[in-house]
């Protein structure tokens, strides 16, 4: 390229500079700078502003800043040009300093700051800047409105958005299509479909983005018919229009409809699917676990030579992983590279490996990720915990605290759920402290997880405290968690009272809430109340009962001794009874010693699950409790012949960060002798207090003395003896058990709590028992 001849005057320089900007020719512009200096034109304000604008536009930030400092006369345009260079470069701290130095910032200055905040995702700061702009009496422009409305939509600042709307109307800009579209988008993103419809109906001119925003909003809110009606009214829908329908179907769970629409688009439209279309179509295949359709879409991608890096590659990985073809997903990872793997695809891959019981490859991929963000760490932790690798989950969490990103509320909630399953109160309290330190304790997900953790760890008092602390932002899950906690701790009346408070504030319960409140009725024997809630669920809240709700009703009737009514309820259920339903009836038959109905329940139970040891044991125990020793022996023999192994009962206790587990007649613990001496001493003392061993709890035809010895060495009694030896006086004992606590242990622990003057909390397979001063929170109804 030849060097242009030196310009003779400033107008020619301005023309050449503007040409250099339009043609993005930095060489031409720099060639103008030297003659400007040589000919002494640097005092021309218009010329120098154009030169400054040239350097800013080509991205030469240092040259622009140096020139700005040298300009003898700075106008508002000069300030705005250098301000824009700072803001567009992402240097907002320096942009703020420049802005504060502007003698009289105009609407362009303010709008530049708003745009800069938006580009960095600081939407709240953008909104705050707009409010300051208005308070300073600066009139916003069309460009200001479109940007601040984008900010309001992003941070869901509906109240501010409505104020912006009033400014738009006041300034007569509501008919300007880009502004009206921004208003439409703001109302749609903020969930105000009524105002979105008002804006849409008042628009005289509508372009494709107008229609697409409304279609997307209707699909988002599940109003599929309205979205399709608008789509059909479009004369020439673009790819965004088709994507809104296809993506909307996916989000609403209509995956087959999404794929049908995708197929129709390919056949009837001249448009080619973009990465969003393909991503949604592959997502539908993943949700349907349809490997065949997913492969067809993959073949289309290969045939039209679409780059699978990025979104499309991640969608392919998710589809293959969810459809059971984990190795295909792994090959896509190898093709696209680990660096392209996003968290959704990684999570799908993780789930895929979990399904086949092999989590190690997922960990290898996790370790290979260049950018392991908080979601990736959380997904890996959850993967470990869901697959039973609790120790690995906790180890990884500790690594995250040391060297990874700051855990967010989802990470903390996931780890709290691990501690809930372990019923580890000490660890849970430590994590509670971490949540407070990270300022995540106010998060609704962490609050809900804390309620569950404290409840399952036996501390209903702390669960209540957390529930009361989050009073201003409770959701349905919060109320449900607390209702379930109270129910499991035998505080059924309090659970029902809380449920009724929930209804009074017009918070709609979901199906899990009703499982919780029906469980509360079951634990305290409120049969009529339970029936009333069951009808309320169906007839008022229009929730279709699931097998869990039916099982609760069967358990409610059975525990109350209404066995025939429970059986009649099963026979008239609109769904096929499952093992939980028959198991609930069988358990009640054992408690109330109804042999005939127990046989019916066990027979139906074993038709569904022939190798379930619980059904055999429950029937044998029912027969034994009724003195039918021969029949019980036959059931046990049948169980042995079919190689069905009985689930062994065991209890465990956490002492100084260690878990100590005990079985019946346990002889393996290092402190065995001390434990047996302690339980013998306790046994003698509580018998003196009036305790009478319930030898009927030993469901074998043995001598009374042998039965009493077996009872004395039940796992929960051994765990209590060990805890008494190894914990400070007056501290609470927390014992966990994998089966239902037997009548004898229940009675004995009441006496033990009075003898040792301690609260003893026992969590069995169905609920918590709080033993204190010789009584139990269940009031002997369990």
UniProtKB/TrEMBL annotation:
One of its GO terms (molecular function) is RNA binding. PPR repeats lie at residues 75-105, 106-140, 207-241, 373-407, 475-509, 612-646. Keywords: Repeat. Residues 690-782 form the DYW domain. InterPro entries: DYW_dom, E_motif, PPR_At4g14850-like_plant, PPR_rpt, TPR-like_helical_dom_sf. Transmembrane segments: none annotated. One of its GO terms (biological process) is RNA modification. Belongs to the PPR family. PCMP-H subfamily. NCBIfam families: PPR. This is DYW domain-containing protein.
